[in-house]
């Protein structure tokens, strides 16, 4: 929401990308900007194109950013926390919009998020990263149904909704103890070692490779599946 330049009209900001990348005249670029605002669901785009960012709500600014990202017909869209700071209703609308544009334009979307609800709603394949490494990769259903890496399991166990049964029994919400390692000073072993309940000497000495455990389900852990595979 703060990526837009506050002193330029949103239409100019979209048109700039079109002019620079497609070498089109300013008038044509502005016409395309209007079309793009219409495509991302902004009402009255001919008027809105002359608005400044502060004239728009958070959700509308996010739509403008998406219009800008779509302006040069990308094959791949990197959406880094696209719904942060939006309320849940607008968040759902933005995710629906990204999904619709993805289908319509036959585009790949890489969604970067810490929000597991967003992942469940929007993703097809998920790569879970810890300290700069992919520790698990699977289809979204497999990941939520059968998480294998201790870090993934810890993340899922820390969702209040998933802990509802235990909350009723007055248990505490689970957390992952410790803190992320200093990335300037990582050991040669597993980066999750300090925080893992299943860690042993092998984990300290060597980094496990990302291996395919089930079809299309990869994990990087010596003892994936709750320590059963040591
Ligand atoms: S390799 Fe060892 S320390 Fe790392 S996640 Fe697996 S069990 Fe835990």
| Beta-strand fraction estimate | 5-15%
- For the secondary structure, the number of strands is 6
**Order of helix and strand elements from N to C terminus:** HHHHEHEHEEHHHHEE
Associated small molecules: iron/sulfur cluster
Task: Provide an overview of this structure.
With 230 residues, the protein is an alpha+beta fold. The protein has a domain at 124-230. It contains 10 helices and 6 strands; from the N terminus they run H-H-H-H-E-H-E-H-E-E-H-H-H-H-E-E. It has helices at 10-22, 26-39, 45-48, 58-70, 88-105, 116-122, 140-145, 150-157, 164-168, 201-205; strands at 76-80, 108-112, 125-130, 133-139, 211-214, 217-219. A 4-stranded antiparallel beta sheet has the order 3-4-6-5. A two-stranded parallel sheet has the order 1-2. Helix 5 links the parallel strand 1 (76-80) and strand 2 (108-112). It is elongated and about 65 Å long. The model has no long low-confidence stretch (mean pLDDT 90). Iron/sulfur cluster binds next to loops.
């Amino acid at each position: 929401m703060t990526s837009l330049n506050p002193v330029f009209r949103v239409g100019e900001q979209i048109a700039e990308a079109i002019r620079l990348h497609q070498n089109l005249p300013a008038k044509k670029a502005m016409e395309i900007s209007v079309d793009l605002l219409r495509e991302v669901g902004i009402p009255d785009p001919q008027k809105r194109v002359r608005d400044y960012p502060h004239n728009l709500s958070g959700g509308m600014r996010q739509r403008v950013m998406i219009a800008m990202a779509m302006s040069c017909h990308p094959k791949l869209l990197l959406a880094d926390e696209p719904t942060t700071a939006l309320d849940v209703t607008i968040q759902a609308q933005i995710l629906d919009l990204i999904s619709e544009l993805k289908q319509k334009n036959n585009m790949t979307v890489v969604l970067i998020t810490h929000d597991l609800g967003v992942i469940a709603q929007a993703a097809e394949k998920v790569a879970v990263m810890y300290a700069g490494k992919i520790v698990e990769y699977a289809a979204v259903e497999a990941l939520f149904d059968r998480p294998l890496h201790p870090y993934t399991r810890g993340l899922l166990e820390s969702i209040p909704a998933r802990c509802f049964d235990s909350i009723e029994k007055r248990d505490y919400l689970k957390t992952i103890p410790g803190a992320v390692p200093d990335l300037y000073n990582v050991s040669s072993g597993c980066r999750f070692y300090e925080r893992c309940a299943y860690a042993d000497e092998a984990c300290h000495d060597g980094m496990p490779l990302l291996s395919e455990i089930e079809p299309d389900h990869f994990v990087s852990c010596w003892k994936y599946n709750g320590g059963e595979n040591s």
